[in-house]
Amino acid sequence: MIKIALCDGDAMQLAHMEALLQDYRLHRPGTDLTSASFSSAIALLEHLRLKNTFDLYFLDVIMPGADGIELGLNIREFDQGGHIVYLAFSPDFAVDSYRARASGYLIKPLEKNRLFQVLDEILERLARERRAFLTVKTQDGFRRLPLRSIVYGELAGRRIQYHLTDGSVVKGMSLRGSFQDAVRPLLAHRRFVLCTASFFVNLAFVEVAGPSGLKLTGGSALPLSRALRAEVTSRWMDYCFGEEPLNA
Q1: pLDDT tens-digit map of 15-49
Q2: Paired strand residues for 63
Q3: How many other β-carbons are positioned within 10 Å of the β-carbon of residue 164?
Q4: Taking the CA of residue 114 as centre, how many other CA atoms within 13 Å lie in the half-sphere pointing to its CB?
Q5: Measured distance CA(6)–CA(45) in Å, rounded
Q6: What's the pTM value of the predicted model, to 2 decimals?
Q7: Residue 210 — φ and ψ, nearest 5°?
Q8: What's the pLDDT score for residue 64?
Q9: How many CB atoms lie within 10 A of CB 124?
Q10: Alpha carbon distance 50, 170 (integer Å)
Q11: Residue 133, SS3?
Q12: Non-local CB neighbours of 241 within 8 Å, separated by 6+ positions
């Protein structure tokens, strides 16, 4: 089941989006998705505070009393992994959308074929993400962690601690070899990179990469070794702009 949130302060625009989603369901038989509509940023954020997150968010950029870009940043405090697509009457805010790690930016009035294309691409990304797991051996047995849920990992003692998007920490068993050898399968994925000899990070959650370290979505900070700074910064830029938003 794919859960979609629609947020627009204009009732007519919201109804139009709902109708397009219904049309998408009819033209993509077998697609299992559900949607919920919100007429304000406040209503959507109240929903998220109850731990009810979505896989995909369609957000109007300009709403009465609200800034859609700021709404996206607020959403990231509750949901670091959901995809965000912005809706606007002009491309003026496209660059700002990167601040919330948007997956798309569409120009109103929405064209059905363009919306369907964006939905197809994002749903395929979600399917790939849901198939990608890391199996971790813990004291309680083996546990499968979706790659999209891993924010960063660190070596503590002889155990790797995996920090997840829901705030929980999964602790692996004591290592027999090196940290680098243990995380090598994870580093084979382009979104993961070492930032020190004992830390790795999911580039999808990096907001700032600078001389003082890494700032992550949600407020966490990680060290960044001088020896790896150039590589991490380059990889982060490639990751950010290699998966450009699906602009109109």
Answers
A1: 999 999 999 999 998 888 999 999 999 999 999 99
A2: 66
A3: 18
A4: 14
A5: 12
A6: 0.69
A7: -140, 180
A8: 77
A9: 10
A10: 23
A11: strand
A12: none
Q: pLDDT tens digits, residue range 201-219?
A: 999 889 888 888 999 987 8
Question: Using an 8 Å Cβ cutoff, are 77 and 218 in contact?
Answer: yes
Q: Are 105 and 83 in contact (CB under 8 A)?
A: no
The pLDDT of residue 238: 80
Question: From residue 22, how far is each of 64, 116, 157 by CA, in Å?
Answer: 26, 11, 52
Residue 192 neighbours by CB under 8 Å, 6+ apart = 147, 150, 183, 186, 200, 201, 202, 203
Of the chain, the percentage scoring pLDDT greater than 70 comes to 97
Mean pLDDT of all residues belonging to the chain: 89
Q: Which of 164, 161, 186, 185 is nearest to 174 (CA)?
A: 161
List CB contacts of 65: < 8 A, sequence separation 6 or more.
Answer: 40, 41
Task: Supply φ then ψ for residue 86, to 5 degrees.
Answer: -95, 150
Name the helix (H) or strand (E) containing 127. Answer: helix 112-131
Sign of CA dihedral 123, 218, 72, 187: negative
210, 233 Cβ separation under 8 angstroms = no
Sheet harboring 33-38: ordered strands across? Answer: 33-38, 2-7, 56-60, 83-88, 104-107, 246-247
Give me the mean pLDDT over the 102-115 stretch.
Answer: 92
The Cα 194–Cα 202 span in angstroms is 9
- Residue 44 neighbours by CB under 8 Å, 6+ apart: 5, 7, 38, 57, 71, 75
Distance CA 95, CA 45 (A): 23
